Amino acid sequence: MKKILIIALIALAVVTGGMFAYTFTTATATIGVVAPTSDFANVTANATTAPDYVFGRFTGTWPQQTLFTIEPDPNYTGDLVITVSMVNTGELIRQYRHLNMALQYYDVNGDIAGTQGEIQVLNLQNAEVLFDWQSANGTAPFSVNITGGGFRLHPFRNMTDGSYQPMIWCEVTQR
Q: What domain range is 168 assigned to?
């Protein structure tokens, strides 16, 4: 019985192998690649303040401040997606009992510029928020701001090292 099965598999491979080889050798595809000539937006990280030294069940709030300034190219007419991420949650979860930041996307006049029109919450369980921006909405430059939020440490933890501070990343992509 095993011999018959092996012979059948070999015969099947011989018969179908030719079809796969024929398709492989005769199919072609062309991919066109165009390099961008300029950036569609510039992102600048702003100086931010965070707690310097805290110990134990310390509870605090984040000061209202601008995290990132985003300036779309004046000639860019498309829409953008602004992704803000907390990239070191693995380190932070060992130190913080909870940590949340309320973020908002504003234009230069202080008006809400995101199409959602509401605050997005960045925290240890939801380490990424998105803001949609339509090209005709608001006046550049734009900013991602912390508008509130708070944190609390686990008991008997101290933060004398900067590695326990949230690391925030901003990425701007075309939509």
A: 41-174
SS (H, E, C) the chain: CHHHHHHHHHHHHHHHHHHHHHHHHHCCCCCCCCCCCCCCEEEEECCCCCCCCCECCCEEECCCEEEEEEEECCCCCCCEEEEEEECCHHHHCCCEEEEEEEEEEECCCCCECCCCCCCEEEECCCCEEEEEECCCCCCCCEEEEEEEEEEEECCCCECCCHHHCCCEEEEEEEC
- pLDDT category at 2 given cuts 50, 70, 90 is confident
Q: How far from each other are the two terminal CA atoms of the chain, in whole angstroms?
A: 60
Q: What is the distance between the alpha carbons of residues 51 and 160, in angstroms, rounded to a whole number?
A: 10
Is residue 116 included in any domain, yes or no? yes
Q: How far is CA 120 from the centre of its chain?
A: 13
Establish if 26 belongs to a structural domain: no
How far is Cα 19 from Cα 53, in angstroms, rounded to an integer?
69
Q: What is the pTM of this model?
A: 0.71
Q: How many domains does the chain have?
A: 1
| Residue tagged 């190219």 (tokens) | 73
